Amino acid sequence: MKIEKVRSGWQKIEKKFFNIINNLNLKIADKYLCYTTLYGPEGEYKYPNIIDLRIKNNKDIKNANETIAHELIHLLIYNKTKKLKLNYRQTEGVIDLFFTETELMTIFPKYKFQSIGIHNKKHFTN
């Protein structure tokens, strides 16, 4: 039931999400795999196309779309962040900016910056 709720929620925004990403000229893979788990962090990615999504409690389910989108952005900008040699905090800051400085804000209007992120627009626009 949890998995179906997450799948249904994602399917409602998936097309719009990828249209926005496509308009940002990011290279989208043919296929992404999302595995669910009851353990670990809220979300995690494994380059090039795997996401792990925790669905342990109601908060996880409620935040699933945002978590999936967040981890997808990690995958989409992975090579760029490596090329720029961004550290973890800088990378998280760039991902926050995707949610607040692009049309993704129309899907996620209540997105809040992560306290860990370093929000440098210079890294975002490179």
UniProtKB/TrEMBL annotation:
Domain of life, per lineage: Bacteria
UniProt protein name: SprT-like domain-containing protein
Organism: Berkelbacteria bacterium GW2011_GWA2_35_9
